[in-house]
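Structure (tokenized):
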């Protein structure tokens, strides 16, 4: 299975925030067309957040180069980028590297702030979007479901979540070095989404009480009533009476311009939006200190090494198990074909025995029982051996032996059962359970 999965990835590690900003808008719109408009892709799951772009592709056949080109062209066109610019900014992963990468990403190990919890919800929703668009496949389903299971295990069994902090809290920590007392600080929150709710909680943890909210979409009154805030109806007026402005909207254009900020007034502006909610030129206004995602990421804390090492070891174990299951599964079509071959022979022998029983039902039943027992015994060892060879990466030997001895070849159309129990069937680990919902609350994009 691993041979047909590839991943295109760009993140804060190898791409500019400007490029990631464009991808966060365009890539999701291109996702549904990747499969329908291409002859080289069977499936695609696209993840686009404020800090990364990922396209997980199930390719038809082995034409990897064409699959990469088709994806780059579609995503670049949707993101107002040149294909060359995008291709130069993405890494292409294949085989086992795809599994390793997604498990690490989903567990928060590749984030700006290592251990942040928002990414697991974003990965989950990218799979849900692919399902809605009809672009997922059984291989992608297994990969993403096991990634979700792995990230949940990392979160519950290590302290990596405590080691990492969300971008909201990190931004407020940076601002705290400039603020003497949050309880006397006037805060304006621009935005009313789930990220805004997380921001309010983080502000109140620090003692902030004077919080206004402005909504470009007109939802300020409703949101203010829900969270016991003051609704602002004019953005510039609200900014004028604020010491700290925090923006976190999904607007595709900046909502705060330099003209909205008074010269000479000391003010901290924290832009958590992607695309940017604040025109970068605002940093040039006298007295304004702008903290955007790029600035915040530079100050991401050094990891708690023990927690991260433990988490990475768990990811490595999960990857090994997944790959072992995939290798074991590689012999399943051949084993299914062999069992069908044997049972067809068995059915013929049972029919022959019944014709020879001279109308004695008891004798026919006894013969059938004996034949079925014998076939079960004979099939046991080949079945065990098939799994052993698959786990050892020697599944092709089993397939070749069946062809040489019996002329049996695997049915390419045979349905291979998933080696992984769907998360919805795992006690205590639902795919869309309340635990996952809680981690989503601080979603940035």
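Design, position by position:
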């Amino acid at each position: 299975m691993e041979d047909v999965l590839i991943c295109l990835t760009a993140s804060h590690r190898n791409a500019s925030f400007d490029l990631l900003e464009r991808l966060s808008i365009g890539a999701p719109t291109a996702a549904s067309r990747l499969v329908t408009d291409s002859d080289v892709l069977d499936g695609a799951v696209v993840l686009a957040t404020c800090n990364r772009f990922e396209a997980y592709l199930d390719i038809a056949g082995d034409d990897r180069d064409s699959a990469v080109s088709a994806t780059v062209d579609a995503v670049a066109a949707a993101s107002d980028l040149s294909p060359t610019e995008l291709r130069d900014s993405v890494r292409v992963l294949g085989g086992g590297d795809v599994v390793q990468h997604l498990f690490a990403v989903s567990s928060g190990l590749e984030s700006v702030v290592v251990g942040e919890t928002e990414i697991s919800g974003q990965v989950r929703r990218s799979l849900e979007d692919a399902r809605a668009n009809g672009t997922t496949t059984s291989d992608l389903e297994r990969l993403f479901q096991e990634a979700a299971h792995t990230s949940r295990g990392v979160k519950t069994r290590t302290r990596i979540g405590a080691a990492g902090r969300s971008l909201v809290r990190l931004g407020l920590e940076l601002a705290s070095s400039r603020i003497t007392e949050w309880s006397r600080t006037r805060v304006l929150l621009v935005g009313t989404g789930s990220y805004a709710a997380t921001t309010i909680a983080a502000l109140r943890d620090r003692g902030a009480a004077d919080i206004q909210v402005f909504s470009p979409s007109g939802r300020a009154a409703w949101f203010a009533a829900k969270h016991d805030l003051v609704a602002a109806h004019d953005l510039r007026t609200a900014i004028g009476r604020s010491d700290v402005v925090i923006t976190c909207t999904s607007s595709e254009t900046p909502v705060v311009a330099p003209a909205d900020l008074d010269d000479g007034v000391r003010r901290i502006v924290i832009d958590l939006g992607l695309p940017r909610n604040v025109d970068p030129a605002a940093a040039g206004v006298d007295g304004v200190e702008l903290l955007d995602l790029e600035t915040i990421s530079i100050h991401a804390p050094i990891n708690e090494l023990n927690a991260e090492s433990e988490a990475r070891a768990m990811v490595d174990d999960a990857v090994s198990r997944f790959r072992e299951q995939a290798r074991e599964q590689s012999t399943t079509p051949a084993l299914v074909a062999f069992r069908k071959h044997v049972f067809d022979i068995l059915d013929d022998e049972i029919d022959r025995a019944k014709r020879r029983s001279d109308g004695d039902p008891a004798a026919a039943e006894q013969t059938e029982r004996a034949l079925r027992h014998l076939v079960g015994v004979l099939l046991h060892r080949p079945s065990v051996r098939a799994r052993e060879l698959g786990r050892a990466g020697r599944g092709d030997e089993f397939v070749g032996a069946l062809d040489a001895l019996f002329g049996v070849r695997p049915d390419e159309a045979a349905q291979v059962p998933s080696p992984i129990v769907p998360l919805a069937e795992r006690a205590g680990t639902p795919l869309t359970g309340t635990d996952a919902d809680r981690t989503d609350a601080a979603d940035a994009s």
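Reviewer-requested clarification: The radius of gyration is 28 Å. Strands lie at 5-11, 41-48, 52-59, 91-94, 186-190, 210-214, 230-231, 244-247, 267-271, 288-291.
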